[in-house]
Amino acid sequence: MPAPRAESAVTLAVAPIVMMGVTGSGKSTIGALLAERLGVPFIDGDDLHPEANREKMRAGIPLDDDDRAPWLDRIGATIAEARRDGVDVVVACSALKRRYRDALRREAGDLVVVHLQGERDVIASRLDARSHDFMPVTLLASQVDALEPLGDDEVHLVADVTLTPDAMVTSIVDRLAPFAKDAR
Questions:
Q1: Tell me: the pLDDT tens digits for 44-93?
Q2: What is d(CA 158, CA 181) in angstroms, rounded to the nearest whole number?
Q3: Which string of DSSP letters, residue by residue, matches 139-172?
Q4: Where do the structural domains in the chain lie, given as residue ranges?
Q5: What is the pLDDT of residues 112-142, one digit of tens each?
Q6: Beta bridge partners of residue 17, listed in sequence order
Q7: Whole-angstrom distance, CA of residue 43 vs CA of residue 46
């Protein structure tokens, strides 16, 4: 599971990082770039959806809490396994509601949540320009409606989706230092 450390990787050991946000916010793109910069594995939560969830989303039907529960359990278990193996990871997961993030923490322990945040019209224009296997632009409204802000007690950063990917990753890395394992 561990990815080889890239020569240009930043040495910064932090709790697992969850890239959070609505569809089209850049969780997978920024998460993969961040993982590369940190020299750690990237896990795309979309890859862990059961096929029934994928089919429902392909049909333009929003997932409900019952649909998401086994998916969140699987993501949490994947993070927990990496932790047991001593591997830091970056995970893309919408984690839209507080209870979803709490479910991940129950399974995986401490997390640093990076919320990729932007205006709905900016994200909608990105969705219009991309092709996704099972997440149509029509589901953006349901995700925006479900989104719950991060609590003050949740370890988190907010990243502006209007930045270039490189600028966003640099900003995130610069602000991760207080959450480094050595800083706790």
A1: 998 998 888 888 877 878 778 899 899 999 999 999 999 999 999 999 99
A2: 20
A3: GHHHHHHH--PPPTTS-EEEEETTS-HHHHHHHH
A4: 27-176
A5: 999 999 988 888 787 766 554 555 566 777 8
A6: 90, 112
A7: 9
Residue range 27-176, CATH number = 3.40.50.300
| Identity of the amino acid at 124 | A
Picking from 147, 145, 149, 128, the residue whose alpha carbon sits closest to that of residue 137 is: 128
Degrees to nearest 5, angle at CA 133 with 31 and 120? 60
Token digits for 170? 């640099």
Q: Which residue reads 């900003």 in tokens?
A: 171
Sheet strands side by side (includes 112-117): 42-44, 90-92, 17-20, 112-117, 156-160
By the 8 A CB rule, do 5 and 39 touch?
Answer: yes
Specify the DSSP element, H or E, that contains 18: strand 17-20
HSE-up of residue 178 (Cα within 13 Å, Cβ side):
5
User: Could you tell me which residues come within 8 angstroms of residue 127 by beta carbon, excluding any fewer than 6 positions away?
Assistant: 23, 24, 137, 140
Q: Scanning the structure block, which residue is given the tokens 């793109």?
A: 29
